Amino acid sequence: MIRKAALLTLLTALLASPAGMAGTAAAVPAGRAAAAAAPADPLVVNEITPEVVRDAAAPVTISGTAVGAQGTSVRVVVRYAPNRPLTSRGEMAAYLSEQGYVPSNWSTRVQATPLDQAGKLPFRFTVTPQELGMSRPGVYPLAIEVTDAATGQRIAIERTFLTYAPKGEQIPKVKLALALPLVDRPHRADDATFMDDDLSASLASGRLAALLQTAQDTGDKVTWFVDPALLDDVRVLSSGARIVRGVRKEADPAAGQWLNGLRGALTGKPVVATPYADPDMTALVHHGLDKQAAASVQRGAALASEVLGREIHGTTAWPAGGRIDRDTLDELAISGVTSVLLSADALPVRAAAQDDPAAITPTPLTPDGAATLYSVADKPLTALLADPTLSEVLGGNVSAPGAALLARQRFLAETAMIAFEWQNGQPAQPGRSGQPNRTGQDGPDGSAKTPSPTVVAVPGSHLWTPDPAFVSGLLQAASSAPWLSMTSLDSVKPGRDGATRGDLAYTERDRQAELGRSHLATVRKLERKAEAVATVTAEHTDVFHAAILRLTSASWRGDAKRAASFAQRVKETIDQRITGVSVLDSPRSVAGSNGQVPVSVANNLDQDIEIRIRVTSGSKSRLAIDADDGTYVTQPTRVLAGRSQLVNVPVIVRGGGGEASISVQLLTDGDVEYGNAVRVVVRATGYTGIAVVIVGAALVIMLAAVVMRVLRRRSRRAFPFDGTTAGEGPPEDRPDAVPAERTQSP
User: Record keywords: rRNA-binding included (predicted)?
Assistant: First the structure.
């Protein structure tokens, strides 16, 4: 009863946790299941050596740990399929998901053994390929299962593969090209304002630190896609003071060290510049922001070359999600892009079916990793097609115990199956003479040479967080595999594998994942304002356009709130720059039936500007602009830094004058409105110039008379006694004074 109670507790815990469900149902690939497992995974496989079996008599070591309730007795079982290697990658996927066959043969390597006081049972055993029935080269299924010793019920299972490639076996070489992204979301809004301090933390010990370590560990065949906006952000972070949420912070020395380390790590390695800020290209094209799409491509390569100190090309585009449509392809081609890195399922293989010639049907052969695409540009583009399964394994989460091992076994088995497919199932291609001929070059004796396919693998997300140890181990295993040959991405060219591909697949779901309409509408408005500022003052042109391009980053997908905060900050900065040039709105006066109204423009910026002024009347019945169309527009006017410029506008006073208004709008040289219009009050008197002088003189005389009279009255109040002399006091104060007689009334 105690044992059954313990087993019930264990099974309940397993079924209640995602790890237990993954271990029981095996609904996801083995590497994914291990990665998603909780720390108390009931089964951890941490060793399978050798990873590739080359000798039928050499032992294979398998070790790991079974975890459960204390005192529970378990049995560790190895399941295998003798003399039955898997035949296709589709069969491999079915095996991992338990939708295909389950190997019926099994070997009990650990007898019924109770778990120790910690609830663990370490196991380690060896088995030879002969014992597992590996009679011919191929990829064999292998499962390690933990069962309850009393009931035989499965507690957990891990499915993986063993690849048997005997020495001396002629296996086609699969060319493997890996592309890794060095991309981050933007951290700056305008040129000097960082919206957070996350970049420093990431460079020191976070995702970007792991990317640098990975770049240092990889060889010269791995291609790196580097975002110039990230390089620029790090350079700004390292070079001087910055503002973070209104707080001034000094330069970060660690950022400079990271940037120098990256320059060294990428020396001699193939590097491609992404468009600046890794923009959402499809969203830009779909919302009419083609100009920004082209600018990001041009800016990206130039800036990456400047920061890294070597020539970096941006002719290969890697769009978000690995998918684009025809409109985006055309825009990229026009912008100078010559190749696009896509997911292979974005350009599906079409095999004609009897009932539907256009239907997409599975192919038993993994097609070559490159194809040709045609656009509106004169030259065709190369589509570099990343294998979805290999990309999933490469970019998967391998933080759980044992996950890295199972992912590496999966990667090796998948690439080996591709080689076996091409060895055994390569369809013949017609030669020039019409005779069958295999793809590839002929051997020295004129016989057909075994074809050499190319596969491409990339992480599924540009914001990939690598495990440097896993990537390094995977590359080491791939380099030693007898069927793999590492190559750079730029060496991948379209082959003649006989696969007929359909058009680019871009679904409604892909459109829904793009940056939203409202966000891009904000970007469009800010772009118009930035162009206006660019015409008036060239100093800040580059900064504002870079800030706007950062708002188009594909990293804002699904992060609308943060994107809006960045856009608001950019808007405030542009508006602040615009309001540095203003119209003085103090009231003005004009005399006579016609005259001029002075309009003042103040330049509070730190540099000279070129501006035009448009003036229209807001009260045409009283005041009209003396121009053919009733609107006065000046030629470009230069206003010095920190100064004001006065412009006289000719007007006509109607209806005897009175208070009127004019609207003053600043314009760029291209007649684009700069800031908001300003209303200026004008007081029109209706008097001629001479009348104004006369009236003014009369007013002066009247004012003088009034002043003199007031002064006279004040003098009388101050000195009320007769006979006083200026400078003397009253009579009674003088020594010789005689009191005056008072006059009495009768």
Answer: no
To 10 degrees, the CA torsion angle through 374, 379, 380, 384? Answer: -130
Amino acid code (one letter) for 101: Y
Find residue 456's DSSP bridge partners: 177, 386
Is 597 part of a structural domain of the chain?
yes
The CA–CA distances, whole Å, from 268 to 203, 218, 223, 224, 308 equal 23, 11, 11, 11, 12
Angular region, 448: left φ>0, alpha ψ -120 to 50, beta rest: beta
CA–CA dist 697, 685 (Å, integer): 16
Amino acid at 612: R
Domain count, the chain: 4
For CA atoms 723, 729, 735, 739, the dihedral sign is positive
Q: Tell me the pTM.
A: 0.80
The Cα 36–Cα 21 span in angstroms is: 11
Block means of pLDDT (10 residues each) for the chain, 746 residues, are 34 31 33 42 93 93 90 87 89 86 70 82 91 92 90 90 91 94 95 90 96 96 97 92 82 94 96 97 96 93 95 96 95 95 91 51 73 89 96 95 96 96 59 32 44 89 96 95 95 79 92 95 93 76 83 96 95 91 84 80 89 89 82 90 90 79 89 89 67 59 72 64 46 45 38
In angstroms, how far is the first alpha carbon of the chain from the final one?
A: 146
Range of the domain at 531: 517-577
Q: Is the Cα dihedral 441, 444, 448, 454 positive or negative?
A: negative
- Which tokens go with 253? 């020395």
Same domain for 406 and 257:
yes
Contact 544, 574 (CB under 8 A): yes
CA–CA separation, 434 vs 166, rounded Å?
36
How far apart (Å, rounded) are the C-alpha atoms in residues 481 and 485? 8
CA distances from 537 to 193, 523, 529, 608 (A): 20, 20, 12, 8
Q: 2 near 132, Cβ under 8 Å?
A: no
Q: Assign 3-class secondary structure to 458-522.
A: CCCCCCCCCCHHHHHHHHHHHHHCCCEEEECHHHCCCCCCCCCECCCCCCHHHHHCCCCHHHHHH
| 202 & 316 share domain | yes
What is the number of alpha carbons within 13 Å of residue 272 lying toward its C-beta? Answer: 26
